[in-house]
Amino acid sequence: MAASSLELEMVGAGVAPVGSRPRPLLLLGPPASGRSALLFGAALAGASVVPSARVLFLAPRPLERLPGGKTAGGGGGAIQKIHFLYPSSFQELLQLLASLHHTLPNSPSMIALDGLEEYLNGCSSAYTAAQLVALLLDTSNHFAQKRHLSVGCQLIVSMKFLGEAGEEAEFFSAIERYFPTKLWLHPETGKDGGLKNQNLTRLIRAQLFRPGTKDQEWMVKFDAQGSMTVFLLPCKNEPENETVSENRPPDSEVGSTQT
Q1: Among 11, 66, 70, 113, which residue has the fewest nearby CB atoms (within 10 Å)?
Q2: pLDDT at residue 169 greater than cutoff 90
């Protein structure tokens, strides 16, 4: 299945000029907002961009189900270009990142980390959390230089975030400056977002904030089998003097879609 416009935007293939490097992206949302599914979809898209693409996918544990209801052991094509590693703790992740430049057989063009909040639970302070993210960025930059790629090595990280009152708020304030691009996920509870409700299980509104560009929104539909369908939402009219995105989720609601 071809990558959606959302997944292409996540890996930087949708808007990045030739020769430019995509900015690190932080994928944020509450539980059951489809973070892992979207991150894996972006990993598949990243593995498909060019023949030489390789993706490193890091997570605290193996994925039980992939988008579309497939098992993590199945697949073909692009999934064969994704290398899965499962450091189970903060310390294991640190040790892995410190040794990747020696142990990884192929330099990746993308690093995807799922469940950052689980690793941050092992941090003693916000400063330690910032050090972990800085190490992730250093690892990404190392592989970009090793591959001699003008497009670099993209870094996409997913994190559970419940808002300013959540337990992750302290860590978020310490690490958000490392991620100029953010994708916020908002479950549309009790709404169909303008779509025909045909055995839907979840509707998620995805809002992408990238400095220097117009904000973009999608509606993501997950059916009972876990299959994902993405609908691009119409661009909102913006005043000419409106400032660029501040990387915060707006309070406005979405009531229509565009296929």
Answers
A1: 70
A2: no
